[in-house]
Amino acid sequence: MLTLTAEKREARPRSTVTRLRRQGRIPGVLYGKNRDNRLLHVDQGELVRLLQQEGSSAVLQLQLEGETQAVIIQELQRDPVKGQILHVDFKAIRMDEPVEKEVPLKLEGEAPGERAGGVLQQQLRYVEIRCLPSQLPGEISVDVSNLEIGDVLTLAEVPLPEGVELLSDPDQVVVSVVEPQLGAEEAAGEGTDETTGAEEGE
């Protein structure tokens, strides 16, 4: 279990948060059952490296003011344009109690329908699950190697790791393979040809 060091943050004006970000710090909060919220900030580089190594579903040891607490990253707020992390929410957990978490869905394999000219469309990228922290997966694999043109795969058909319970709607479509659509330029070109031909005929 990886360790992330945090420092206490005071509830101050927005300008203080902006200054923290300029200093390479990410503001955040630690909260949990039967405990007060605690404002904090963490090193941006350390958090980014941790996410690259373990993903956003990892269970971490958060060190804050001499206390070490098992946590999960409950939410990451990012800049919609640059993608930079603006704020992080840590949720304190117990290793013997189930947690609820959104984890990414990762497509695996190559769909025969795509090789035949179809278009693979992923409609769902995250799924909400519940399990013990020790069983929390970094991602859930979705096998598309049997999908033909016209096929649809729902959450109910995606195998889950042992001990993991699905909380999202099982009828949600994860991925489908659809017929290729006529490109807009090609369609416009055909329309022009027909018009030209009609004019020439006149």
Automatic annotation (TrEMBL):
This is Large ribosomal subunit protein bL25. Keywords: Ribonucleoprotein, Ribosomal protein, RNA-binding, rRNA-binding. GO terms for molecular function: 5S rRNA binding; structural constituent of ribosome. Belongs to the bacterial ribosomal protein bL25 family. CTC subfamily. Residues 187-202 have a biased composition (Acidic residues). Residues 181-202 are annotated as: Disordered. Residues 99-181 form the Large ribosomal subunit protein bL25 beta domain. One of its GO terms (biological process) is translation. This is one of the proteins that binds to the 5S RNA in the ribosome where it forms part of the central protuberance. InterPro entries: Rbsml_bL25/Gln-tRNA_synth_N, Ribosomal_bL25/Gln-tRNA_synth, Ribosomal_bL25_b-dom, Ribosomal_bL25_C, Ribosomal_bL25_long, Ribosomal_L25_dom, Ribosomal_uL5_bac-type. GO terms for cellular component: cytosolic large ribosomal subunit. Part of the 50S ribosomal subunit; part of the 5S rRNA/L5/L18/L25 subcomplex. Contacts the 5S rRNA. Binds to the 5S rRNA independently of L5 and L18. Residues 4-90 form the Large ribosomal subunit protein bL25 L25 domain. The gene is rplY. The lineage of its organism: Bacteria, Bacillati, Bacillota, Bacilli, Bacillales.
